[in-house]
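Quick review question:
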């Protein structure tokens, strides 16, 4: 994802950019508690368990501490996005609770593209177990669930334009194909979100107040959101662990206008989530930009190794831009 401050056209709107984008997985559901529920309750109707309700209430307090900087700041607003599943909506209700006054909430949007990976309709447990075993052998990203979606399908609807009719295009005339394309071709959620951020459609009318986006969704959807945002590879995706119930990831604006996980989270957390050293170094650079900035922070000594390379030196980066930017420029040139 390019820097929000990377072009002159953004200078008038950068002040409206959210300070944080917080991705939250729903609380424990009845399906997490007992998978037999999946055999007779539609996936999107599955509710939170009692434990999940408590988790959602607790995480609401934690998130408020993050955005209010442990209660020291009142200069903030929140905008919520939520998957249409019952368990995510219940989680959001508990997160808001008594913790977020009405004057602090500038909007709440139900977003269908944030839904869970589709595993088919009512799910036979033995078939589900077999599917998961096969998926692990085949590869989690590309394996498509029979009558459902692959992780790649979810990635497409989370990120960029995609056609949600793989199984409809056989034996169609050109006119029929064109008609279906016009119906099913839609921009992905992240594409829409970025456009709304750049054009100030997030209702952040007062730039002096810090805007925070809180997105309540599902574990895999959150991983794929991060994969697209940070341009992670399929191999890197396969090394990631799924967020636990009501676990959250905070993307926060860094010193050079890039969003980074390293602004809020400790490096030990990033490693525990499955980020490689290369991915962590990228997060550090997105957060702090140069070795000069990095010296004022407390990080492991290994971080210095990243900047020993000539192409990561302050002088080289100031002249040529970050590796991420150069990579994006190369990709755009080839496109």
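Suggested answer, residue by residue:
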């Amino acid at each position: 994802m390019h820097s929000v401050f990377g072009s002159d056209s953004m200078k008038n709107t950068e002040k409206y950019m959210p300070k944080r984008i917080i991705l939250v997985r729903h609380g424990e559901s009845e399906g997490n508690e007992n998978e037999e529920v999946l055999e007779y309750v539609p996936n999107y109707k599955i509710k939170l368990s009692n434990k999940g309700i408590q988790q959602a209430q607790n995480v609401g307090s934690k998130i408020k501490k993050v955005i209010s900087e442990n209660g020291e700041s009142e200069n903030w607003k929140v905008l919520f996005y939520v998957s249409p599943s019952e368990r995510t909506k219940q989680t959001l209700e508990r997160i808001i609770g008594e913790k977020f006054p009405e004057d602090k909430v500038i909007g709440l949007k139900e977003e269908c593209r944030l839904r869970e990976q589709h595993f088919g309709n009512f799910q036979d447990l033995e078939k589900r177990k077999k599917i998961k075993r096969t998926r692990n052998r085949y590869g989690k990203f590309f394996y498509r669930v029979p009558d459902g979606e692959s992780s790649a399908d979810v990635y497409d609807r989370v990120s960029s334009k995609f056609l949600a009719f793989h199984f409809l295009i056989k034996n169609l005339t050109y006119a029929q194909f064109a008609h279906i394309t016009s119906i099913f071709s839609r921009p992905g959620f992240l594409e829409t979100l970025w456009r709304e951020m750049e054009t100030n459609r997030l209702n952040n009318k007062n730039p002096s107040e810090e805007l925070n986006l809180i997105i309540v969704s599902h574990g895999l959807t959150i991983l794929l959101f991060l994969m697209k945002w940070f341009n992670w590879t399929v191999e890197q995706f396969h090394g990631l662990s799924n967020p636990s119930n009501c676990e959250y990831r905070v993307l926060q604006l860094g010193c050079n206008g890039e969003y980074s996980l390293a602004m809020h989270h400790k490096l030990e957390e990033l490693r525990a989530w499955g980020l490689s050293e290369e991915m962590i170094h990228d997060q550090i650079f997105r957060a702090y930009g140069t070795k000069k900035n990095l010296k004022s922070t407390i990080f492991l000594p290994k971080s210095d190794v990243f900047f020993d390379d000539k192409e990561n030196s302050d002088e080289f980066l100031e002249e040529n831009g970050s590796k991420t930017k150069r990579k994006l420029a190369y990709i755009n040139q080839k496109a």
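Why it works: The longest strand covers residues 210-217. The CA atoms of residues 36 and 125 lie 7 Å apart.
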